DNA sequence: GGCGTAGTTGTTCAAGCGTATAATAACATC
DNA sequence: GATGTTATTATACGCTTGAACAACTACGCC
C-alpha cells in the first residue's frame, strides 16, 4: 500500500487554504458540517495536518471568524473621496456584492449564534462591531462638518447607531431573501432613508427611479 | 437494577416540554449542543422518547424554529389601540423584553445560519418574515391614513422595508451587546428615527430625555 | 378487575467525532 | 549526494452521535 504523494506548501498559504476550506464547510452545512475531516477533504489534505497548524478545532474556528468579520468591514472602512462621496460609498458597499450575499450571511449567522456562548468569539465580534460603528460615526462627523453643521457628539452617536442598525437590517434582509426585492431597491431605500435621518441630501437617486 | 418510575404526560404537554428543552440546549451551546441525549436530559426523559414524538432530529428542530419565530412576531402582530398607538407599540415591543434578549438572538441566529442550507427551514422563515413585514405595512397604511395622508402603496412598501430593516438591525445590536447602550436608548433612537422616516410624530420622547 | 394500547425506559449498534502519534516524504543546507 | 528538519500521511484510540428496538409500565376501557 503506497502513500499518496503530497505538496509541501508555504505555511501562510496552507493556513489560508485551511481557513478557506473551513468557511466553505460552514457555508455549505453550518458549524456542524465543519468537522476536521470535512475541512481536510475540502482542502485536499488529511485530517491530521489541521492539528499541525491549529492547536485545536476551536482555534481554526476563531481564525475563520476573524476572516469573516474582516471581509464584512474592510471594504467599507477604506472608502475614499470627499465626505459626501465617502458616506455614500460606505452605504452602497455594505448593501452590494461581495459584502451582501447569502454566503456571507450564513457564515456570519453561524458565528453569531455562538457569540453568547464563547467568550473568545464575543471578543472578536465586539472588536469588529465597534470598529465598524466608529468608522461610520467618523464619516458622519466629517460629512456634517463639510455641510456646515456642527457635529454634535450626542447626535453623531445616535445617528451612527440608527444608520448602523438600518444598514445591518437591510443587509440581513437582502442576504436572506434578495429575490423579494427589485434590483438595487435596497440601496435606493437605504440612501433615501438615511437622507431623511440626517436631514441632508447625499446623492440618492430620485425616488421615481 | 430497577427502572425509574415515570410520569405519563399528555401528548401536547410532552411535545411542548421537548421543544422547550431543545431551545434550551440550542441557546446554551448552539445547534451542535442540541443532541437527542442532551435534549432528553434537559427534559428529564430518556433519549428514545424523542423518537416517539418526532420522526427524526430534523423534525424537532423544525418545530422548534416555528416556536422561535412565533415568539418573535406574535406579540407585535397583536397590538391594540388607535393607529398611532399601535405603531408605537409595535416598535417598542420589538426592542424590549422578552422579544429583545440575548437568548432570542442566539436561537434566531442558530436557525438563520441553516436557512440557506435547509429548504424546510427556509420556507418557515419566509412565512414568518413576510407575515411580520405585512403586519408592519398595514400598520403604516392605517397610521398614514389616520393622519390624512394618502397611503401610496409604493411609499408604504418602501417605508415598511426601511422600518423593518431598522428594527431588525437595532434589535440585533441590542441583543448582541445591550450593555453598549443606555437604558431604553435603542427604543428612543428607533422612535426618533422612524418619525424622521415617516415625517410625522408618533409620540417619541423628547431627544433630551 | 383484567386487558390492550401506547408512552417510556434501557440498551445496543454503526458511524463519525476530535485528538494523538508513529512513519514517511519533501525540502534546505552543507 | 548525504543529512537533518519538518510538513504531511496513515492509523489508532476513546468517546459521542443519531437511530433502532425490545422490554416494561401507566392508564383508559369494558
Automatic annotation (TrEMBL), chains A, B:
Residues 12-72 form the HTH tetR-type domain. Coiled coil: none annotated. The keyword Repressor applies. InterPro entries: BetI_C, DNA-bd_HTH_TetR-type_CS, Homeodomain-like_sf, HTH-type_TetR-like_transc_reg, HTH_TetR, Tet_transcr_reg_TetR-rel_C_sf. SUPFAM superfamilies: Homeodomain-like, Tetracyclin repressor-like, C-terminal domain. Keywords: DNA-binding, Repressor, Transcription, Transcription regulation. Residues 35-54 bind DNA. GO terms for molecular function: DNA-binding transcription factor activity; transcription cis-regulatory region binding. The keyword Kinase does not apply. It holds the Pfam family TetR_C_6. PANTHER family: HTH-TYPE TRANSCRIPTIONAL REGULATOR RUTR, TRANSCRIPTIONAL REGULATOR-RELATED. This is TetR family transcriptional regulator. It comes from Rhizobium subbaraonis. The lineage of its organism: Bacteria, Pseudomonadati, Pseudomonadota, Alphaproteobacteria, Hyphomicrobiales.
